[in-house]
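Quick note —
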Amino acid sequence: MGCWSTMLASLAVSAALLGAAPLTNVGEITVGPVVQQVETETMTFSGTHPRFTGVGDAAAQKRLNARMAEWEKEALARTKAAAATMRADDGSEQRKAEGVFSYEVKRNGGGIVSLLFSEYQYAGGANGLDVRSGLTFFTDSGETLRLSSLFSNSEEGLRQVNALVGEQLRERGLESRLLVRNPQVEKGQPFYLTDTALVIVVQELTWFPHAMGTVELSIPLSQFQGCLRAEFQP
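Predicted structure written out below.
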């Protein structure tokens, strides 16, 4: 069997293991979707979480996959809780609570995987709430990373992040929309990586009004001076 045939056969086996669901991203590891649909008289829930294969540390891969399933389970529980408290006379046309949990692969290469997770919850009224979070880890060890972990000197790294974020707020004309004065990116701030940028995720209603939703601030990795760890250099 030739190399091309062998590769196709391998992909077919992976797809079969994932219930024949299409792969969302193939890179240094495989990221495949696990889909769940739940509908009752009071709620609807659509969930898709990732399943990883090919992580260098098998035990870490098992922990990561268990965490992904748990995140979706928690999102489903929040939808059920919303349904239990949703008023039938709130004036909205929609009579069911709604929950959506999904993800996007933002990077899968260079030994790093980074994803963005989105959770939408509607429990009556005019608008729902969208919450986003990130997950970034090394493909060899499965080690997950906080924002501060990207830098050889976390204090200096966060100082540069805040300086660059401040510049971007001014350049994009976002300062006038801030709900808080001089907001600061902390070491636990949600983020994700692309091949060339660090993207800071600002949750709804934290820095900006609800109408702006989640705001993402993209900083080219090339703009960091002397503090970005070698593994993350563009």
